[in-house]
Amino acid sequence: MPPAHVMADLAPGVLAGDPRALARALTVVENEPADGAALLSALAGRLGRAQRIGVTGPPGAGKSTLVSALIGLWRAQGKRVGVLAVDPSSAFTGGALLGDRIRMTQHLGDSGVFVRSLASRGAAGGLSAATEDAADLLDAAGFDPVVIETVGVGQGEMDVARAADITVLVLAPGSGDDVQALKAGLLELADVVVINQADRAGADRLEASLRGAFELRAVGSGGSGGSEGGLGSVLPPAPPVLLTTATTGQGVEALVVALAERAAPSNSAALAARRLERARRRIREGVDRARAVEYWAVCEARLAALAGEVAGGRLPTQDAVTRLLQEGGR
Amino acid sequence: MNSAKSRPIRVLVAKAGLDGHDRGAKVVAAAFRDAGFEVIYTGLRQTPEMIVEAALQEDVDCVGLSIHSGAHMTLFPKVVALLKARGGGDIVVTGGGIIPPEDAEKLRALGVHRLFGPGTPLGELVAFVKEAVAARRAALAAGAARSHGDGPQR
Fold it and tell me: What confidence category does residue A175 fall into, taking pLDDT thresholds of 50, 70 and 90?
């Protein structure tokens, strides 16, 4: 990696929309948190403009194909579109096969579209640790909207809902029965639900079961409080359910309209609240991370000793925690 | 900064030209993944322009092209020229396919790195990419340090 003042040299290029500078800046943010922070601070004042759109859903539902169809419509409106596409890293080798671009090649060569593939690198929430900083860079470079496409998710990967202004959940027929639709998790975080591959059998059945689930929510919501680190204590209103066939573009226009509505002035209070919450969380996470690095630099040896005790059954886990917190690295 | 060690190698694997035979490319992509690389796989029928655009946006260390159509003497030079024109001349360009040694020699003179024929052990490819990328990164770091007048790094 070049030294820090070389990092700062990238900032003007990013602002000027130089794709090579932006690409290098993304590499810095992804690999060198300290240099990435210096770079982003050189971009202060240019952040917070783009609409951040999260796209999530199970593998094979058509997320990338749908994003590609959205790009086509946004480009027709003259928008410059940034995409961050996250795919999983191997837990064993750290390697990754990043294949989301395969569905988006039709936009290659269009300077108004910038696609970057990110490997999740061990993060379990559906994004990578650097995804939000990477979105800041695309935002500063003038891309709006910025699409954040998660890894193919199961039921627990919720990070995207906190990272985005609006979250689109993409499902496909055959991805579950009524009970799946009742489970907590993905369905609750969706601001818009898309049933993609709507030309396939079972789409109307999926739509009916989703609408049924959302009706139940409307009756039962407003109950007990949310948990710490949650997305709020009350469930949001039932999201719209849209049907698309991304391969033909069928229904994608309606999704563009739904996304634009969320960015409209009439929704500015809700959007501002969400961005405030996101800012709070990101600051907190930054402090937590830095604290943890500091702490373990001192206490790693003590941790190893206590881990031996716990693994040998001589010490309960919580006692080890208490000792570490009270005694530190001594 | 010790990122040169920890930062994963990023490689773009693409099928250039019109042939629809991508088994080899997929096998190589999987081998690179298993070697700990981050592999951007762009699929079939990529033009040199598309390949270069993707390589630049993804900030890869290396581009690996699979060409079985016989068009290697057109496609490789085009990719190299476009990369150079757009500020990516330092990116390692390598590849494989049915490429006669005399063609490989000519391509080498144009800036293409080693090319690999059918049956090359995957470990050999991985070792080559590791070595070539390490050299590229070292050259980049030295160049960046030089251009800022603060000598070699560390």
Answer: low
pTM of the model: 0.89
- List of chain A residues whose C-beta atoms are within 8 Å of the C-beta of residue B37: 95-96
Angle at A1 between CA A49 and CA B29, to 5 degrees: 85
* Region of residue A48 (left: phi > 0; alpha: psi -120 to 50; beta: else): left
pLDDT tens-digit profile of A220-269? Answer: 555 444 444 455 556 677 899 999 999 999 999 999 999 999 888 888 89
The rounded distance, in Å, linking the Cα atoms of A113 and B21 is: 29
Tallying the residues shown for chain B, one arrives at: 154
SS3 at position A256:
helix
Residue B114 Cα, gap to closest chain A Cα (Å)? 23
A165 in Cβ contact with A135 (< 8 Å): no
What is the ipTM score, two decimals?
A: 0.88
Task: Of B126, B122, B144, B145, give the one whose Cα is nearest residue B134.
Answer: B126
Residues 4-63 on A with a CB inside 8 Å of B are: 5-6, 19-20, 23-24, 26-27, 31-32, 35
Encoded tokens for A124: 């379990």
Rounded Cα–Cα distance for residues B92 and B99 (Å): 18
A57: left (phi over 0), alpha (psi -120 to 50) or beta: left
The predicted-structure confidence for A22-46, as pLDDT tens digits, reads as follows 999 999 999 998 899 999 999 988 9
Residue A139 has pLDDT above 60, yes or no: yes
The candidate with the shortest Cα–Cα distance to A146, out of A48, A60, A232, is A48
Helix, coil or strand: residue B71: coil
Question: What pLDDT does residue B147 have?
Answer: 65
What is the mean pLDDT of the segment spanning B113-133? 94
Instruction: Classify A146 as helix, strand or coil.
Output: strand
List the structure tokens of B79. 């990719």
Coil, helix or strand for A165?
coil
Among A27, A94, A108, select the one facing B54 at the smallest CB separation.
A108
